[in-house]
Amino acid sequence: MENKFKYSDDNKRYHTWNYHLRSKFGSKVCKIALNGSFTCPNIDGTKGVGGCIYCSGGSGDFAGDAAHSVTEQFNEIKERMSAKWSDTLYIPYFQAHTNTYAPASVLRERFEPVLARENVVGLSIATRADCLGDDALEYLSELNERTYLIVELGLQTVFDETGERINRCHTYADFLDGYGKLRKRGINVCVHLIDGLPGETEEMMIESAEKVAALHPHCVKLHLLHVLKNTPLAQMYANGEFELLTLEEYVRIIVRQLEAFPEETIIQRLTGDGGRDALIGPKWSLKKFVVLNEIDKRMARLDTYQGAKFK
């Protein structure tokens, strides 16, 4: 079946991150996940303790080694990537914890050294919508004038009752406030959503996608809920308090969510990574290419595309 989707040059019926980067930079671009040694207001007691119930220590399990400087981390990961791909461009990605939860002077100390590295074409910063102080926003605005900047906001769900259940410690209104401050300054935003959170129905997950879609974000990440060892979520799962999504359920939900997003929105991710040793479930998520192939097959079978039901 012919693929007529506007933002694709392969079989993908959605606007992939890889397609966007190749179109923008004309080359392979890799994100390098870094640990900037930040903390989180949901961990240090400012808003909560222990982090979100699924958090294994700051959502940076695949980031660099915090014992090394960000420059050392960058060089170590770049060396591994260069062996796999030659002539690659890079986007440093401050992934672990909340990367605007510090004075702007500290942010400069972390961000500027890697931004100055050779073949770096952008910067991605993961944070919370309630951690965007005036000085941080001023610095982000400056960065936005100098490089391809994306600020990643972990929303996870638009439902505050779910937010309380997962110990998110901020509301949907907080998210909208932070999102508005960034967009007012012309800063690109990537919004994170998690499918399969305890207590949520499929229709709730679709509603979260539809409400985010209405904001026309630059890009989104759609994650599968992973149950990891030594987390409060793992104990809830052991107690039988919720069930994990099956592969078939997840694929159906993702396709419906993709239909809800405008075709211009870049889809950075359609499933997450759970470390093999730490992952309790769902085990099928370890076969990432199987998940992505099932999404492709369902979209082709239904002859549907990203944006097909965007309102």
In summary, what is this structure?
With 311 residues, the protein is α/β, with parallel strands linked by helices. It is built from ten helices and nine strands.
Characterization of this structure:
- By secondary structure, the protein is of the alpha/beta class.
- Helices cover about 35% and strands about 15% of the residues.
- It has a 7-stranded parallel sheet with strand order 1-2-3-4-5-6-8, sandwiched between helices. Strands 7-9 form a two-stranded antiparallel sheet.
- Helix 2 links the parallel strand 1 (about 30-35) and strand 2.
- Helix 7 (about 200-215) runs parallel beside helix 9 (about 245-260) and helix 9 packs across helix 10 (about 290-300).
- The longest helix has 15 residues, at about 70-85.
- The chain is globular, with a radius of gyration of 19 Å.
- It starts with 16 loop residues before the first helix and ends in a 9-residue tail after the last helix.
- The model has no long low-confidence stretch (mean pLDDT about 90).
For the residues shown, what is the average pLDDT?
92
Coarse shape? globular
Number of helices: 10
Termini separation: 26 Å
The strand order across the widest sheet is 1-2-3-4-5-6-8
Low-confidence stretches at least 5 residues in length (pLDDT < 50)?
Answer: none
DSSP strand tally: 9
Q: What proportion strand?
A: 15-25%
**Considering DSSP H and I runs of 4 or more, what fraction of the residues is helical?**
25-40%
Helix-strand sequence: HEHEHEHEHHEHEEHHEEH
Q: What structural category do the secondary elements indicate?
A: alpha/beta
